[in-house]
Design goal:
17 helices; 2 strands; Cytochrome Bc1 Complex, Chain C; two-stranded antiparallel ribbon; mainly alpha; binds heme C
């Protein structure tokens, strides 16, 4: 064994590396559980890669099939619902771990000399993660995906000079549509993971190089050595990592990742809402109108980002103890409070959209066409639909019979839709004579599937 290890080490250097980074490494005395958050983020990231790969094996990145492939993944693949929920809540967990880790670094002054570039790569990682969140949100191609992306790319389009270019490049055209889905998919599964892995390697290498900043000591003071990194601190990191992973599995097995009805671009009633970590930003936009709009969409976020990038170079105070950094403490707390309040306000104001008809898997193209027409024609404004599991969709008006109770042949439906007055003597049912016979028949064919 000894000889095998020596043989391997001579060629690969792994034993030397393990010694240097684990066994012979003595981080400064007094580092506790607050210094495990970065590792927790790493654990969540690993889970995101695994669940993401499982999803990618089944996901079809086309506007026609994306939604169905997600539904089929949940329904037919063993543990599909769990895996999708893991990936969904994992995104949030990652943002939480990364943000807490960043706050810890900020408030303990760990970004100071000589760790400026560890901080910078951390900021790049956080923006990449937000990019993952934004692009991933579109992939299920449901209502919330479509309309949030529409808002997001419109915001990008308002940036000066490059805005229009960025918007059309992301959209793959003028509007959010099928090409947008392809592009977001490539960004989500190729570009961002490549960028993330590259920057993450640099981030980790820099942490290896500089070690943990000694708590409470001014820069350039090494402080007393603590016990070896392995097993003392590794134990804490693994414990926290397991707790976070356990919490995530619990959450994902208890709550299902949301999936609304398939996207219908012509829907004018839908009120878009982003994922919770963009709610603060979304709220900010509501306070600036007209020529001031770009203050909320561009200048304030850019200011925050620029402030974070410049921080380790502008902040020359050598102290790490918070009590000796009153300005940094005030700025940090002010920023956290502002983001917290904006997110809370955004959460409170977030619109709730009425449930719309969900089509079952395995519809023929014609049935699917009929389904889309029924949604576009707002039939559920008068004809309520009660699903098999008892959810009520739409309202009942003028005593219109429930959709699943309509018992008419395809031709009868086509005739009723053309002229309800003549066909059933109804004054209350509007006519849909503007639809072609083929469209009206497609509605009749779809209605049969509800019975
Ligand atoms: C403004 C309200 C309203 C809307 C919108 C509406 N309907 Fe109706 N519909 C009615 C009412 C009321 C009746 C019952 C008429 C009666 O029995 O006198 C009816 C009757 C029907 C019937 C015949 C039921 C039967 O067997 O007697 C069908 C089929 C039907 N609607 C389909 C549709 C479809 C499909 C849409 C959407 C494209 C739609 N309706 C939109 C109000 C509405």
């Amino acid at each position: 064994m000894q000889r095998l290890l020596a043989w391997l080490d001579h060629r690969l250097g792994i034993v030397t590396l393990a010694r240097a980074s684990l066994l012979d490494k003595h981080p400064p005395r007094g580092i506790g559980f607050l210094r495990t958050l970065g590792f927790a983020a790493l654990v969540v990231l690993a889970l995101q890669f695994l669940s993401g790969i499982a999803l990618a094996f089944h996901y079809v990145p086309s506007a026609e099939l994306a939604y169905d492939s997600i539904r089929a993944f949940e329904q037919d693949v063993p543990y599909g619902t769990l895996v999708r929920s893991l990936h969904h809540f994992g995104a949030s967990a990652f943002v939480v771990c990364a943000a807490l880790h960043m706050l810890r670094v900020y408030f303990t002054g760990a970004y100071k000399r000589p760790r400026e570039f560890t901080w910078l790569t951390g900021i790049v990682l956080l923006t990449l993660v937000l990019g993952f969140g934004f692009t991933g949100y579109l992939l299920p191609w449901d209502q919330k995906a479509y309309f949030a992306t529409k808002v997001g790319t419109e915001i990008a389009g308002k940036a000066p000079v490059v805005g229009e270019f960025v918007r059309t490049a992301l959209n793959g055209g003028d509007e959010v549509g099928p090409p947008t889905l392809t592009r977001f998919y490539v960004i989500h599964v190729v570009l961002l993971p490549l960028g993330l892995l590259g920057v993450l390697l640099v981030h980790l290498a820099l942490i290896q190089r500089h070690g943990v900043a000694p708590p409470g000591l001014p820069v350039d003071q090494a402080g007393a050595k603590g016990p070896p990194y392995f097993p003392h601190h590794v134990f804490k990191e693994v414990l926290v990592g397991m707790l976070v992973a356990g919490a995530l599995f619990w959450l994902a097995s208890r709550y299902r990742a949301p999936l609304e009805a398939v996207a219908e671009p012509s829907d004018t009633k839908y009120q878009p809402r982003p994922d919770w970590y963009f709610l603060g930003l979304f709220q900010l936009l509501k306070y600036f109108h007209g020529p001031w709009e770009t203050v909320g969409t561009l200048w304030l976020p850019t200011l925050a980002l620029a402030g974070a990038v410049l921080l380790p170079f502008v902040d020359r105070n050598p102290e790490r103890r918070l009590a000796r950094r009153p300005l940094a403490a005030a700025l940090g707390l002010g920023f956290v409070a502002a983001v917290g309040v904006l997110t809370w306000l955004g959460w409170r104001d977030a619109p709730h959209n009425e449930a719309v008809l969900e089509y079952p898997l395995g519809l023929t193209p014609q049935e699917r066409h009929g389904y889309m027409l029924v949604r576009r024609s707002n039939c559920t404004d008068c004809h309520q639909h009660v699903t098999k599991d008892g959810r009520k969709i739409g309202e009942r008006q003028h005593d219109a019979p429930n959709l699943e109770k309509l018992d008419r042949s395809v031709d009868e439906v086509a005739a009723i839709l053309e002229d309800p007055q003549e066909a059933i003597g109804s004054e209350d049912m509007p006519d849909y004579a503007h639809l072609s016979l083929e469209d009206r028949r497609a509605i009749g064919i779809y209605l049969k599937t509800l019975r």
